[in-house]
Fold Maspardin.
Amino acid sequence: MSNTLMAERDAFLARHPETRLTLDGRDWGLIDTGGTGDVFLFLPGTLGRADVFFKVIEPVAAHMRVLAVSYPESGGVVDWAASLISLLDQLGVAKVSLLGSSLGGFVAQYFAATYPERVSHLFAANTLHSLAGIGERPPYSSDLWTAPIDELRRGFAMGLTAWADAHPDQREVIDFLLAEAAGRIPEMEMRARLDALKTGPVLPPLSNTADTATTIESLDDPLIPAPMRAAVRERNAPGHSYRFLWGGHFPYLVRGDVYANLLLSRLGRVPMGGEWAENDGVFEA
């Protein structure tokens, strides 16, 4: 199947290959654009490896060193946050601007609340404020370590296919994500990601200021309903909250150019260039 996004992702990986490293006894993936100065760290959701942010990594890397990770095949939110500290210590990085999307957004919020001295700016994107009740819903209600992996992958495929049917303009993005769900994310890594959501902690209070917090959401996100989006905004008390009019659960893939400019402008790296307007596909709440 021809897919421009896959070709772009593969070309990106040729320039910035994912390397493997051990953090606290677990095998992680890492993309590191290198360089000196301030650092931006990306944390993916359930259906993404480190390279899922390929549309925004290079624009951000023109201004900052960028790190992006792929999660290991064991552990959960608390363990992974501690291992991210090990990563920063290993690289000699004192603070990061941190963006997590979906599962990654939950990890990012936990990390920022637990280790506030290591975060210069938190971007909580298309994410959750609480995991309460998630274990009662499929597929999380299954034993995620023993349920047939094909069954778990099939659940993702059904949801993604339904989204593509309702939004044919996003078909290429959905095909890209279907390949991730179908096996590009290895079985044990997939199980660990699902279990991390099922068994994740209650988020501690955040101590960030409005100037160091930003939320990002999509009005058409099929996974994060409006009340949860409002709860994320309330919890993070951001100085700025951006809403994509369209982009589903993956606006960084659907509108990578706007997404990258949003991040850089929020950090003062590029001028905003005027107010976000509806014809840009995003506005500030």
User: Anything to note?
Assistant: The CA atoms of residues 190 and 258 lie 29 Å apart. Confidence is low (pLDDT under 50) at residues 274-278. The longest helix spans residues 149-166.
